[in-house]
Fold each of these.
Amino acid sequence: MMETNFFDTKIEFLKGVGPQKGDLLKTELGIFTFGDLLQHYPFRYEDRSRFYRISELREDLPGAQVKGRLRQLEVIGEGPKTRLIGQFSDGTGSMELVWFQGISYVQKSLFRDREYILYGKPTSFQGRFQMTHPEMEPLTPENERGGYWQPVYNLTEKLRRRFIDSRTISRWQRQILELAGRQIRETLPDSLMEKYRLATKLQALWGIHVPGNEQHIHQAKRRLKFEELFYNQLRLIKQKILRKTEYPGQVFGRAQLIRTFYDEHLPFDLTGAQKRVIREIFEDMRSGKQMNRLLQGDVGSGKTIVAFICMLLAIDNGAQACLMAPTEILSDQHFQGLSVFAEMLGLRMGRLTGSTPKKERKILHEGLLDGSIQIVVGTHALLEDIVQFQNLGLVIIDEQHRFGVAQRAKLWQKNETVFPHVLVMTATPIPRTLAMTLYGDLDLSQIDELPPGRKPIVTRWKSDQHRLEVFGFVRQELAKGRQAYIVYPLIEESEKLDFKDLMDGYESVQRAFPEYQISIVHGKMPAKDKDYEMQRFLKQETMIMVATTVIEVGVNVPNASVMVIESAERFGLSQLHQLRGRVGRGADQSYCILMTGLKLSTETRMRMKVMAETNDGFVIADTDLRLRGPGDMAGTQQSGVVDLLLADLSKDAEVLKAARESAMQILEEDPELVLPKNQPIHNQLLHLRENESNWARIS
Ligand SMILES: Nc1ncnc2c1ncn2[C@@H]1O[C@H](COP(=O)(O)OP(=O)(O)OP(=O)(O)O)[C@@H](O)[C@H]1O
């Protein structure tokens, strides 16, 4: 009994916490129980292993611990300028201590001529060292040797005002760990701890909250990260196995239309990679189990035809197919791309977006219900309950991470008897580590080859001063009969200003290229007008397209071979890569020119450099993850899928790999986790599930 209950003990029962501070911990940090506090990990450490003499202090130290005597303490100044000044010396020199806040409290708790240990950031002021708001504690026989690392925890201002600081938190952590003693249950099986030489859970918790040295911190982190990723993967893989064994799928065995399409209409030979992924997808769609597959392919790798051929397999077997895209423009692009093929075979296709007129909707709803429309392409408007199918066999979701898992599930449920097969398609390369945690429950197919004859896009980075030269280059390309994009950022917060930039840009492009027709497309235009301008550009009635990022995905104009991206520093790496993917889609040599201002951060320079150096979407995605962290990657934050406390997907790829392999091996051998050696895993899964439902109740 004791064992499970101990960690669920309410935090206010910890000595020194009590009801008031307990409430603060709940509201400020979401800490309700002992277990919650133990999971509140520090985000960095201060080195308290050694003492600095005052004569050794340097301004570049992030913090320093000093042992000495408080010589003086006095309040000076008045009103808002009041401050408390202390003089502190250690025999090698003296320094000044300064407090602006909490003066009366500090004054009461410190005594002149006593010895203290203090920790703070040394700054130099008029040739003397100073510390503002140092942490102080009386020198005692226990602490006079230093020799530990102080964890620093995430705290709020409100907590600090109530004198709950990192030291308080780590004292509480220590108290819990001492009370818990050996009750701390191991959550990983012995075999894994031996194989990866991991610290035990008990050691790890001590090591992370009460470390004696750097080595302890390192080992504790390694163990806890492994555990975190191991359970993340274990649950995803379990989910995947469950789907494969429990969820039936329609068996699509017939392939008549596909044969006709291959024999009579295929516009080009498929690449080896395209053939391979089609084979993988077909195997799933014939397996009798529901397909849940992620199709990744870099920009321009030819996903459209793959999607179409998969749709054909469903249609061949009397089922319907739908494709859902995150934006109207992208869904229209897909519609156009697919209808070229659909027309060849006389298939009926529909489209449904927010701006589809009522009358059209009605026809579409009927056609889907009676089965006369075989393919529908649209946005999340497809999710509305009124959209019913006769027999939905295949759901293709483009750019799924913008939709979220719940919406994905909603589409499946459009078929009452058997779930449709699901293919998630993404054009934004996702770093491997992120894909594993985001889509770890899906099988993966990858188009890792571009259609033949493509020349790598040449990318140049130029400062604004070179605009004339850049426009001169664009003119040369236009003279060869090619087309050009000129892209402006349009970011929501400063939309008005951006819009002005776009319009100014448009005018200057018009002035610079009076001999050419120019299109303009931006997000605020009615869909009809966007469509019209896109069509004009596609038909080469206009030769230059001035646009915002609405053209980021899906736009396919093979004759366009130059792209100029204005204010490129305002775009993320993956976004730049997506944009650049709009050129280089034909056989001509293509160019992308990144225009930036002169004053740039190191990170921005790095981004531009990477873009100029590589066309490889995966390298770019990995760099993006490294520079920005997973929270910022498109849509992942909102979907809440990447929910890791300690592990960092940009740095812990190795740990993730080991965790995933281990989870797979264990589930392969013991899918139900019933073997005695896997008991710790079984228990921990129950515990995690329980905790989640607690959370659900609270929030
Ligand atoms: N095997 C192939 N051989 C030659 N051309 C191909 C082949 N596959 C696709 N293409 C052509 O390559 C271009 C890009 O294909 P598609 O639009 O399907 O790319 P995509 O993967 O959807 O890229 P994006 O996500 O950037 O839109 C199209 O013009 C298409 O007709």
Amino acid sequence: MKELNSDTILSVENLSIRYRGTPTDAVRNVSFNLGKERLGIVGESGSGKSTVGRALLKLLPTAEIKADCMQFRDIDLLNTPEKQMLKVRGQRISMILQDPKFSLNPIQKCGPQVDEAYRNHIRCSKKEARQRTLAMLESVQIRDPERVYGLYPHEVSGGMGQRIMIAMMLLTDPDVVIADEPTSALDVTVRLQVLDILDALVRDKGIGLIMISHDLNLVRNFCDRVLIMYAGQVVEALNASEMHNARHPYTKGLLAAQPHIGGPRAPLPVLERRPEWLEDVKVV
Ligand SMILES: Nc1ncnc2c1ncn2[C@@H]1O[C@H](COP(=O)(O)OP(=O)(O)OP(=O)(O)O)[C@@H](O)[C@H]1O
């Protein structure tokens, strides 16, 4: 196992993943470190972003995961038995998914679901869990937590549902949060509120946030660093503020394909893809 320096929470080296029964790796030789920062993983649909996120939590029962290193603090995630993974998952590394509708149980009120998640990890009375839930709901800017506690998932808006999911994920003070398209199902103003909450987690609690998205502009404006994925590989890693200096032709193509409001009217360029980009990838 590697000795991680104090700034590194998570370290991944040459991660490759192949789904059983498929002829090629869905993810190949992906490497990155995560500190107390916002790391974006961006790429088109099918490029392997979510597969990387799920692999970190070993949530891929139908895939083979190989890596030279996949380490969270002093835990070797690759070789950790499932029993210990249960303590890592949801407690020290949490995940938020795109649409709260699919994550919340439709036939149970929202508050008790959060209580239950807490009591799965921490031994405490129902009353203590309820108090913790209400405090967490308040911390994600839900103004009337008592009322929201008693609502069913279909009675809350998408933005409220996503905040409930974030509250659920924060219960155990995780060190790493993997947010997989957390705002794609939300409208623009609610999206900003949710990003604000995630941003505060990095600033105030010092978590490491992995933001998975296909939205280059969102990642560019929100994250500190960005990994660009193309067909299962990271082809470029950049500081978000240096995006305009991208060197890989795929990243340049993605940037050129962004529409500019107010600019001269012109057809958007077609995104070029070349098979040779996948041979001998050196992350630039
Ligand atoms: N359970 C599975 N079995 C087989 N192949 C899969 C499975 N899940 C994903 N894949 C394949 O792995 C590749 C990467 O998929 P993944 O969902 O990680 O991409 P993504 O970049 O997150 O895409 P999206 O933005 O659409 O979610 C795709 O080719 C996909 O078809």
